[in-house]
Specification:
PRP38_C, spliceosome, PRP38, mainly alpha, about 300 residues, mRNA processing, three-stranded mixed β-sheet, nucleus
């Protein structure tokens, strides 16, 4: 009896609201401790207090398919089927997990028009939300990412979401206005600031018409050009003269200087004198040796 849908509940998508969650997951929720302790005899008024106690979102985790409190409360909302006004207040609530709970329930039970109408404004909510994956580990998501997954994906928090019409079809049928992104407003502000900057620059140029532009270069005077050309011509002429003098020196035969010739003659004379003195000394030595040999009765030496 505790797991049955209320008697006055309306069918959603042509079926019992609780059947929107798969049977295996629904059975695990009925067997969970949180369902038996926290969700028993829970009314729409008491549901708000339980939603305020949520600290993360997620589907089931672990090998034995343990449901999260978020998924248990979703099934309880499908069972008691609260009014649409209560769900809208959930979505407008500042508590991020209460808002996520209301958005998920609206995506499960609401029409295509209601989903786009009430969920798209939440895309401007960039607060961080804790998400528990199938391994039981926690991840960080942004609220706009969670809402975008509800509008774009077919399976969120291990629940198969009912199909909704494409937004383009609703716009073509004039049932929904074209969505204006917050980025468009930022782009408009940037474009307006750029236009204002251009207008200011044009006004400054008009105020100072005789001001020379920074890119314009100053032309050289003709007098300075003539002076530079003359200096360049003089340098070229001096360079040409030096090269000609070097060529002449190379072609001219080298003549010895008188100083060098005197030095060489002196060296030659000194060498000849040294040679002559050595010869005279040898002759004297030979004569003395012959005289000594004659006294001794020996034959003289040949000169």
């Amino acid at each position: 009896m505790a797991n049955r849908t209320v008697k006055d509940a309306h069918t959603i998508k042509g079926t019992n609201p609780q059947y929107l969650i798969e049977k295996i997951i629904r059975t695990r929720i009925y067997e969970s401790k949180f369902w038996k302790e926290q969700c028993f005899a829970l009314s729409a008024e008491l549901l708000v207090d339980k939603a305020m106690e949520l600290r993360y979102v997620g589907g089931h985790f672990g090998g034995n398919v343990k449901p999260t409190p978020f998924l248990c409360l979703i099934l309880k909302m499908l069972q008691i089927q609260p009014d649409k006004d209560i769900i809208i207040e959930f979505i407008k609530n500042d508590h991020k997990y209460v808002r996520a709970l209301g958005a998920f329930y609206m995506r499960m039970t609401g029409s295509s028009l209601d989903c786009y109408k009430y969920l798209e404004p939440l895309l401007n909510d960039y607060r961080k939300v804790r998400f528990q994956n199938k391994m039981g580990e926690f991840e960080l998501l942004k609220m706009d990412e969670f809402i975008d997954s509800l509008l774009q994906e077919d399976r969120v928090c291990d629940c198969i979401l009912p199909r909704i019409q494409k937004r383009l079809i609703l716009e073509e049928n004039n049932e929904l206005d074209p969505r204006i992104s917050a980025l468009d407003d930022d782009m408009d502000d940037i474009e307006s600031s750029d236009e204002e900057g251009e207008v200011r620059e044009m006004a400054r140029e008009k105020e100072s018409p005789h001001k020379r532009s920074p890119t314009r270069r100053r032309s050289r005077s003709p007098v300075a050009n003539r002076r530079r050309s003359r200096e360049r011509h003089d340098r070229d002429r001096d360079r040409h003269r030096r090269s000609r003098s070097r060529d002449r020196d190379r072609k001219r035969p080298r003549s010895r200087s008188p100083r060098r010739s005197d030095r060489s003659s002196r060296r030659h004379r000194s060498r000849s004198r040294d040679r002559g003195g050595a010869a005279s000394k040898d002759q004297l030595d030979i004569k003395e040796a012959n005289a000594l040999r004659a006294k001794l009765g020996l034959a003289p030496l040949r000169p």
